[in-house]
Design brief:
Two copies of one chain form a homodimer.
Chain A lengths: L1 E6 L5 E6 L22 E5 L4 E5 L36 E5 L19 E3 L3 E6 L13 H19 L6 E8 L11 E7 L4 H17 L3 H12 L3 E4 L3 E4 L10 E5 L11 H21 L6 E6 L14 E5 L13 H6 L3 E2 L3 H9 L6
Antiparallel strand pairs in A: 1-2, 2-5, 3-4, 3-6, 5-7, 7-9, 8-9, 8-13, 10-11, 11-12, 12-14, 13-14
Helix pairs in contact in A: 1-4
Chain lengths: ~350, ~350
């Protein structure tokens, strides 16, 4: 993997990544000329026992681009700057223009509840220079590179000493609020382990103490024995609908052996994970012959400097559809009680996705 | 409060409630003639440590009504049965036709993960016979009656001995997936305390052990001293935007003194809570001069047979809009990490809602 770190005119960092040496990089653009100086803060939610982040400047966006403007394509016209330079590279990662969290956040407001500076980091990961493709349509070695980039960014963010959890994710489709269709994802880096991965880590740690093994690794071994919900099995990776799926088309992608972080993967594991990922994405788009929306999140171990033998890196896909026409709205029981209810069995949805033939 | 309990032709229960004696009730209808015999089940999500409910029959709905059909209005044409009889009553509560949970669920499937019969209860609360009004437009004593009905149903469900948590809620608006505009809500009754109220109860119990008082009661006292986020204050009730709001227009409605359950409220408290509720709802609809969508959930203490001095009954409103035109999509950080990020300060949103004049 080749990489080139650069600085934007407004002070933000951008890193270019390539499978081959990075060449002929044009001037580094930014849609803004003045420096971006966010100062978000956290407030403690005393009844949920969790932090809520406030980045109030985000509503003051003076920058109102025309609808056809794509800030994620390489900049060919300096009069209309985008976020990316021209050049020979595959993937770009840059600091979010309007981040929710900031590594140098300071002086939170005084309130009757506990507050804290909004420490953290938000970055955009542009998967490819090609606006018209999608993650699942990229070549295998390009997807494997992306997995390596996620690992590299996890390691770099951990090295700041301020970050205890790194979450790479992709929101895809207008159904989950995405209006910019250039293939891209985001990385959120938190100074604490957020509620969902915290709970996950507690469950994994309890199992590991009791059994001496990683929980998800044992569950994956069971799935492989049953095979009824498996979408892909390779030498190192698996894709399956978990029997505990909360969304009708929920799919998990994971290495078969527990790995704590994205940067712990070997080259072989990355390639096989890329194959699992591409298989799932092509099945999703093939199911109804149209782009399939989802939230994809990569859960890994905390970056808190201690070993995590209990943690098992994996991706979870949450697609918003329950049938071709019907969205699954999260409402009363899901949002207010936190108990998910599904009107579909994972076994039945697995059959639908297993029946979608993919070739690459 | 007057009430009349009846049985539908398909075996489901319906209870009518009135401020005056219930009279001239017509035949009790049902859109179905055959009995509804759901048998849902739970599966344990081993990494989140929570139950997921599966009611797979729900996709087999053979009943496909025309778009103008309103099952929640009183039935005046026996050839087109609805869910409600004609008659003089104010509110009706009936067993959901396609419930997610069922009190007599049995024989869960054997899987490699833990399963359990889908015990519980789901019911529909029709707020009024008038299809064209809304909760906030009902008279005060009608809203106070609804609060009493929620309390009555909580108590009745607790008396089954199978229910440890009762959640009354309303999903309002197409933005949260509701296509049926007749004013109504739902009640979910769980055999366990679901994740969100469980966490809430743990935080409240820890505070109560340390300070000997209810957490939310102390927080409300602070809000009343500050007043900057208060929308309504009466002798017994308050409505305010909490400083820890996760949604831009999130509002909480509560009695000032901690009450564990809806059925613990006095008549005076119910009337003042109804006034707080009506104030909030009229401000919501007045803000942009259009019906304001939301999820409204009433959190109360578990119905597990022990005293809950730590619990403080309250409603939380989660509106999906962040500005008049823009929805707040829950995506990467909210759904996958569980950390909410807001680009608006509760103090600013409180000013907007405080400025909306309401009169009733």
């Amino acid at each position: 993997m080749y990489q080139l770190e650069l600085t934007k005119p407004d002070g933000r960092r951008i890193t270019l990544f390539g499978r081959r040496e990075i060449a002929q990089v044009g001037a580094v653009p930014s849609p803004r000329s003045e420096p971006v100086r966010p100062n978000p803060h956290y407030r403690w939610h005393p009844l949920r026992g969790e932090w809520v982040a406030y980045a109030a400047y985000r509503q003051d966006r003076t920058f109102l681009p025309p609808p056809e403007y794509n800030p994620l394509r390489p900049c060919t016209d300096p009069a209309n700057p985008t976020e990316l330079p021209t050049g020979e590279y595959d993937i770009a990662v840059f600091d979010n223009l309007f981040p929710t969290l900031a590594l140098d956040a300071h002086d939170p407001p005084h309130l009757q509840i506990e507050t804290h500076a909004g420490i953290g980091h938000c970055e955009v990961v542009v998967f490819t220079q090609d606006s018209r493709t999608s993650l699942g349509n990229l070549p295998l070695d390009h997807i494997a590179l992306l997995i390596e980039v996620w690992g590299e960014r996890t390691q770099k963010l951990a090295q700041t000493g301020k970050i205890h959890y790194v979450l790479p994710f992709e929101n895809r489709g207008v159904e989950v609020g995405v209006t910019l269709h250039h293939p891209h994802g985001q990385i959120y880096a938190y100074p604490f382990v957020p509620p969902v991965p915290k709970r996950m880590n507690e469950m994994e740690a309890a199992y590991c103490r009791a059994h001496g093994r990683a929980l998800l690794q044992d569950l994956i071994a069971q799935e492989l024995r049953g095979q009824s919900r498996v979408l892909y099995e390779g030498a190192h990776a698996i894709a399956f609908l978990p029997p505990w799926a909360r969304y009708p088309y929920e799919v998990w992608v994971a290495p078969k052996q527990a790995r704590a972080h994205l940067f712990d993967l070997s080259e072989d594991e990355r390639v096989d994970l890329a194959t699992a990922l591409k298989t799932v994405l092509m099945k999703y788009d093939g199911l109804w012959q149209k782009p399939f929306p989802y939230i994809m999140a990569w859960y890994q171990a905390p970056t808190d400097g201690v070993a995590h033998p209990e943690s098992h890196l994996h991706a979870e896909f949450y697609p918003p559809y329950r049938t071709r026409e019907k969205l699954k709205y999260l409402a009363g029981t899901e949002i207010a009680a936190g108990m998910f209810a599904s009107d579909a069995l994972p076994e039945d949805k697995a059959k639908e996705l297993q029946a979608v033939q993919v070739r690459f």
